[in-house]
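Section 5.1 Outputs to date
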Amino acid sequence: MKNIPLFTTENGAANLILGSVPGFGTAYVRVLSAQDGKALAAECAQFCRAAGAEGVYATGLPEQESWPLSTEIWRMTAQKARLPQTQATLEPVTAETLEEWVALYNRKFRAVPNAVWLSPSQAVLKAREAFFVRLAGQTVGIAKGAGNQIHAVAALAPGGGRAAVLALAKALEGPEIALEVASVNEKALELYRGLGFRKMETLSKWYKIG
């Protein structure tokens, strides 16, 4: 399902993020401007639910502080040279393994707040940023990242999350490695903090509509 970059009503404008509706049942609303925030939120939520969303989350509304907070999105960083070493390696996703990787990703990230559902798109393959993580002859995780950014990691075996972070970080560019994480994702935060990642800023706050 395609996103709507500009959803406008007499009450304001917003960006509707609908890509995760088919797989995760979630939609996200980034408010761009609002004359009547509550009315705009209700209109956005109605449209998203008509598109199949079960949960709708918004950011950017001044009135939203009175709504239930779903999560904050934090930016965390670590110095690459200070990260522990690992024997884990990355195996790039190919056309033959793309569907397997995407299925694993969607299964692992289904319950992660603000995670993006992926379709078996060649865009993932062309970007060359998706990997299986191997350790001692076993597939222990999956990873996605580019530049100096970790986009996603998931464990498929005990210790696989740690192996995925370290193997991906080693392959990324620059002296500083960055990632984004939901503040309520306690398991991920424990892993990242244990490896030396520190919160730098809050990028956004997401509230549940309705």
